[in-house]
Amino acid sequence: xxxxxxxxxxVTDGTAATPKIVGTSVPKLDGYALAAGAPLYADDIAERDFxxxxxxRILTSPIAHGVIESIDVARxxxxxxxxxxxxxxxxxRMFYTTAGQGWPEPSPYDNQMFGDRVRFVGDRxxxxxxxxxxxxxxxxxLVDVKYQELPAVLAAADAMVDGxxxxxxxxxxxxxxxxxxxxxxxxxxxxxxxxxxxxxxVTISRRxxxxxxxxxxxxxxxxxxxxxxxxxxxxxxxxxxxxxxxRIVSRLIGVPMSRMRVIKPRIGGGYGTKQEVLIEDLVAYxxxxxxxxxxxxxxxxxxxxxxxxxHPMRIDVSIGSDRAGHFTALKMYVLSNTGAYGSHGLTVxxxxxxxxxxxxxxxxxxxxxxxxxxxxxxxxxAYRGYGATQGYAALxxxxxxxxxxxxxxxxELRKKNVIAVGEGSPIFEALGEGRQGVAQxxxxxxxxxxxxxxxxxxxxxxxxxxxIRSGHKVRGVGMSTHMxxxxxxxxxxxxxxxxxxxxxxxxxxxxxxxxxxxxDTILAQLAAEVLGVxxxxxxxxxxxxxxxxxxxxxxxxSTTFVSGGAVLKAAKSVRNQIFQxxxxxxxxxxxxxxxxxxxxxxxxxxxxxPILSFYRMEDGFVVSERSGKRVSVSDVGYRSFYETNQKxxxxxxSFVSPYSPPPFAANFAEIEVDELTGKIQVxxxxxxxDCGISINPDLVRGQILGAVANGIGFALTxxxxxxxxxxxxxxxxxxxxxxxxxDMPPVEVIVVDSYETNGPLGAKSVAEIGINGPxxxxxxxxxxxxxxxxxxxxxxxxxxxxxLRGGAD
Amino acid sequence: MTTTLTVNGTMCTVEIDxxxxxxxxxxxxxxxxxxxxxxxxxxxxxxxxxxxxxxxSCLMFAAKAAGxxxxxxxxxxxxAHPHPLQEAFVHNGAVQCGYCIPGAILAAxxxxxxxxxxxxxxxxxxxxxxxxxxxxxxxxxxxxxxxAAAMREDVHQ
Amino acid sequence: xxxxxxxxxxxxxxxxxxxxxxxxxxxAYVGGGVELVLRRNPGVTTxxxxxxxxxxxxxxxxEGIDIGALATxxxxxxxxxxxxxxxxxxxxxxxxxxSNNLRDMITVGGAVARNQPWNDMVPHLLALDxxxxxxxxxxxxVPLREFLRSKRGSALVMGILLPKANAxxxxxxxxxxxxxxxxxxxxxxxxxxxxxxxIGQASIVVGGRPGHAEECPQLSSQLTGHPVDHxxxxxxxxxxxxxxxxxxxxxxxxxxxxxxxxxxxxxLEEFAAEVMR
Lengths: 809, 157, 277
Ligand SMILES: Cc1cc2nc3c(=O)[nH]c(=O)nc-3n(C[C@H](O)[C@H](O)[C@H](O)COP(=O)(O)OP(=O)(O)OC[C@H]3O[C@@H](n4cnc5c(N)ncnc54)[C@H](O)[C@@H]3O)c2cc1C
Prior knowledge:
The structure holds 3 protein chains of 3 kinds. In chain A, 28% of the residues lie in helices and 22% in strands. By secondary structure, chain A is α+β, with helices and mostly antiparallel strands.
């Protein structure tokens, strides 16, 4: 079948060694099963294997802030078919965080399974498990709760003022200053930014605000649990972080890890929201107490109101520059709204600075500081882009304003200031994920080419400043530049195992969590490349805490880079063991030290592994570089399984890196503004990305396109609306508008590979970066079209029209 | 009440409540390729074909579907015998998490049955129920065009 | 919808009406069933299926075009007679509102009988002066506007008649949505008769905002008899905000809806100018 990939250009410079499998768009290993609707998601498995399971429903708070004065579950318990009602009276009291992150956990311990306090409309009050969903739902209505309502904080700006209601009077461990509703605080200073700003020839200061928005996975959070014949609590969950689920739930309900197993089946979209333990504790605890399999599947309304959101932020940016456009100082203050709980509050806010400011490393004096505050609104959490999206919204639009002030082409202004190969930024070291960072020097970057190619594709020079008009519609173009990271340096660890079967095929198990990204496939490609076979010689199994080795999970753009590193090392180790047996079969010498040398990801020393001067893997054979003789891997397998020096050829390797090489992107948008309605129509969007070597170009493109689509929705239409009492009033897809097929403009993807020596076979990350472009690129295009700056998202028609009329946006 | 549903050509007699929703009945009966979450007709995940036309099974009374031919994605193609649409989706990176794919394939199938050579606009319109949060749609649209071309060639041969 | 006790397949229109009358408010007709599933009415315990009553046909008659109540939006969009009626506006928009799998479910009868504030078919049919074939005590044909005013629970919509008088008119439909897959924040429909550059007759209907679709005779009358030029439309555009109540809700403020009204009527002017060319 001929597929015309019309809006896709993939540029490789051809200098890297020519791999065979890596760089090929191998179809996803689970693609056909998914396309044929195989029962692979949590609820499918529950329905198929446990038709007699109990169904859980959660009672949530109808008020934004209050104390539970009394809760009576007698009538609910008495309803026929109800098996269990959980409340703060019969559940563990431990404080913990729902954020699935590394250890020690950077988010405050401000959450309980059930508390005697409710902190937002949608907060957990009770859970019912019953024979059917309907009975459970009916029972919710029979739970009698009396609340003493408390004054609520319904805006981030009100959280820190004197006399504001204190949302966490229990003073959670890890919260920065609960008495002032500050969940987290950062302040990182390099040089003296105020002095530098004052001394700059040109300075601009801008404020930008982003809204409450959500991931909207097509599959809502779903998990079920059962107790297996060995007394083990098995949790099957639509999670991005199976190991963090195991750790958090194990500690919370007091079941040792040896008696807990977490399995991630296929999951219907994550984007960050499933980096959070929201229902697994309930199903596991209920399964333990009832002895019956128990499931919870959030409704769409619950997903909106009670699951996680993107941190709304108000960001103040100041940039100092000389008249020629060389940045001298950068200052950014963030007021982040973490909602009722501080999940990811510190780390998302840190990333708002750490993933943006180093891009403009020429500024010598830099300050990044901020507060993540509690409010009585829905809880924010991890969301693709992870703070960088908000940071770039502010920074890239401010840079555009600076360009206008300097009377410069915004593209030229960026060219003068972006980071380049061989350079670092003090911010890398000063600001990590909620703690000190790690110094980084850029090893790979094709950003200058991205800017050039992207500009050509959109027609930057021909269209910019032209304000092409037809009737009451006017056009403009805008652009922005970005970086992200690849995993969290020295924190994220991944591991993988590979074992050889005697027919020369392999079994790859890994902790890495494929949440639809295709990581099972691209990680198999990495192993296949090293072992000189195609991916169909692999079977893969991932994300099962009993059957696969550890991995932190799918977040922080870590999978390709960090999990990929682990797979690469495991493949090299297995390869070396195969060489060893092959050498004996061929009667050739092979130094033991070479076989047992620590396998590594390339790093600064880019010379090939020394063992490769003796043997190479080729199409299922080991070929001797000395004699030219070959022996099949299958022969190696049979011999080592059944004949001489018998052993299982296998390896488990782990990878943790001091590096987090940033992918880079340049985004360009052409828009048309309807001056009568305020509607912004994106006519054409171009995104040019450097993610190192693209292991699987089709999947790379898919990551970029998906992120851009979500980003355009975030820029234009997606927004939580609240009642005066803090309840979300548009908690359905009927009223929370994500983009349909008819709304998406053609998006052109240009991938310009670089070779990242610290990444597995040259790769960096790609999952998140695409979401950061639309807000600034579209906002800047609007400025180009109208001369008016939008300072708040979404750029909804009503808001845009007000801005066109000169009102405040 | 007892009713007869015809799913992918197989007639089955099922016991339903008169107010039951088709999606719920299908899942209860093990037709697990039909999924859905919003139950408000907003997302398109639950799409099935009723006499060849796409409908939201989450807003359809099961009793209303009785006597009509219901087609799920497994009636279009399976892992072993994929339909050109499934081939094209898989070979163009158009399947990410996969959750919405059965619905999208069915909408595309209905579209191609009616219009064997749709342009971009027609594809976007003909599949506009089917939200996808992973792919940004582009690769799916290309896949539909590729499958359509392959099917047209097949017809000519 | 409470617990549904019965799903009744009516064998004819008469059978359906009799059944409905016997059960009074405990019964509901099923068109596409979309609204019935979505917004369950606890009082309803019997559903009356109309699928076997022969109401799906769309055909041309001496009076105009008859659309069976069970015709879906998709069927309407595919109908050749409708593609020619009023320059195709009904067919065009029936194929574009809501989203594809709903367009194959939503019936014209269900839309007219339910008449939600944001429905797109009702205002457009009103502008086209549609009639409704109703079966109640007897079979009769009443103007849609009258049907909407005096609707009775057990009255069965058998079909819609688009009158021949408007067959060559110009149907205009303008709706503003946040995304393409959305209900309108404002809907304006119009039917214009244009003869040698003069607007012979105009009918403007506003919908898509809180409250039901409404004809706007004060706007329509301003256009009637005027040549198609800016002088004809300017006062309409200018006065619309004062003459039409656009409401206010979470989807859009009243002020913004008034802006949209201006945009819609500016669009109507452009449409008329386009038609002239
Ligand atoms: C997500 C979504 C988006 C939508 N978007 C749009 C949109 O953009 N534009 C738009 O115009 N509409 C839209 N619709 C609304 C749709 O037009 C209404 O839901 C419509 O009323 C449903 O038609 P139905 O045939 O399914 O009605 P049903 O649910 O079958 O019936 C609705 C009501 O009418 C009664 N009824 C049905 N048929 C008859 C009859 N023949 N005689 C008498 N009474 C009858 C029923 O008893 C019921 O009370 C949307 C709906 C949904 C769910």
